[in-house]
Amino acid sequence: MQFRHPELLYALFLLLIPIIVHLFQLRKFKTEAFTNVAFLKKIKTQTRKSNSVKKWLVLLTRMGLLAAIVFAFAQPFIPQSDIATLPKETIIYLDNSYSMQAKGPSGQLLKTAAQDLITNLQEDQKFTLLTNNAAYRNTTVKDIRNELLQLPFTATQLSEEAVTLKAQKEFTKDPSTSKRLILISDYQEKGTPYQLPASNVLKNYIQLQPVLKNNVSIDSIYVSARKASGLELTVLLSTLEKRETNTAVSLYNGNTLLAKGTASFNDDLITSVLFTIKSEDGLEGRVVIDDPLLQFDNTLFFTINKDRPIRVLAINGGNSNYLQRIFTAPEFEYTTTTLKDLDYSKIPEANYVILNEVTDIPSSLIGVIDAFAKAGGICTIIPNSTTSPNAYNLTLQNLASLQVTAKQNEKQLVTTINYDHPIYRDVFDTRIDNFQYPSVSESYAIAGGDPILKFQDGSTFLTAQNGIYAFSGSLSQENSNFKSSPLIVPTFYNMARQSLQLPDLYMNTGVTNTYDIPLVLQDDEVITLEQSTAQENNFIPLQQSKGSRVQITTTQRPQVAGNYNVQYGTNTLQQVSYNYTRSESNLRYAQLDNDKNYHTSIKSLFDKFESSDNVQSLWKWFIIFALLFLLLEILILKFYK
């Protein structure tokens, strides 16, 4: 038993008052003479014994009455749990990701959860609300009722680890408080563990799940073929359950309907729809389906811009026919020249420069190439077999701080590929351990840089440093069969692609995206991304001027999917598209029901809290005891003789 006001128990010292009154008799008795003394003595003895018992009974009832009143005012109670009497700190995480758009028994999961919180939380109860993109600290339901009912959906979802770390920063350091973290989500199965432990924090999980899970999602779109008549676009769609009904798919250019198709899943969970459109200078694309379960994945934005070829300049001292076959129009604008006919002013205008087996590279050209690389250009250097090690060493030292140590005259095989390097990262489906190894008869030993291709002895065949790619040997047919290797095309193709990273057909929001815009910016000029349908989504992205191009980097913005104009002053340079990631379309859920802190509704959890926080008050019983003692005293005084 515990007391709400234990300090009032000092009033029990008042029990000494009736005891003192009882022990010290303040009445004075007079002696009277009677004739029959013996009879009076007997009566007197009996009366004193009777009065003594009665006084003790009255004393006990009065002490009981006073003690009961003191206990009642001290408010005794019995707690229902060990934490019932502790101060509470409550943090609620409410998942507002797009998967919470799914319909539960009472409507959308997010809207239902918000309404249940308003219903079950006390109006004046202090708590902190965390969502995927906002925090409401030390607030009450009354203060954020409107915000709860109007919570926006977001494409990103915090992991449980991230929520736990945020919550631990919000909790106080007071060890005497009971800390409760309530996580409300649908808990999609994403391969990450749930129910992570947290020190000094009681976690409670509320899992909300939809009634239906057969969501249809537009997963991606890509150009499957380029023909003279136009482009073939393939749209991929998926569902989680077999469907007997077809789904209509519409293709728009802005607000103009271009084509319609039908997605038939049959017995498959993945299907595709093919569209053929005429080639145009630009396409502000949008693919739309009508599926009632989740809304965010019913639209996929994409952009096809006017072809902007990557400008490739080859300065040749050897055979360059293989380069001409790799860098074809319309993707590339290939220019070839000899060192003798080179116009140095054309180098800054190029995106990718190749020094193809130039025997002697003059210092003036080295200076121009160095400025080109520092401005963000990409240059590949292929040595000539007759180039002296000292001359090649001087070139590489000045351009990339690479060191040529010696010339090797032994034939070697290229056996090691750096699959993690950007030029090979997306080339291979699997990492190949045994392939048709290219061979090189003569090469230079190069130290430094980031090796991309290596010989069997571990020495470098292709390395990169500060935008400079350097081969250690000539690629002529007399020296190497690398031109006949399957590696030749992806190697040069991706080196050129790195020199001008054009935007993809579409990108995802919430992740880092980097692409280039062919433009020479002047001082204090910036590029903006603008959405014509909603100006509040316009913003200035992170940008860096690199010679003839501007590198754009986006991370947290844009937050809204759509087609955006790349705006330079009043000129629209091109368009880019952003979409929400489709990870939220997966309506498969983790199993959490083996945990004692798992709940399927907000009401059941708050009922549990109310039960555990409840205390059994005893003050009413002590009031009853006080009345009983008072009644007993009255009865004793009136009827006891």
TrEMBL record:
Pfam families: BatA. It comes from the Bacteria. Gene3D superfamilies: von Willebrand factor, type A domain. The chain crosses the membrane at residues 6-24, 56-78, 618-640. Residues 1-76 form the Aerotolerance regulator N-terminal domain. InterPro entries: Aerotolerance_reg_N, Double_TM_dom, vWFA_dom_sf. Keywords: Membrane, Transmembrane, Transmembrane helix. The keyword Nucleotide-binding does not apply. PANTHER family: BLL2463 PROTEIN (PTHR37464:SF1). NCBIfam families: two_anch. This is BatA domain-containing protein. It comes from Dokdonia genika.
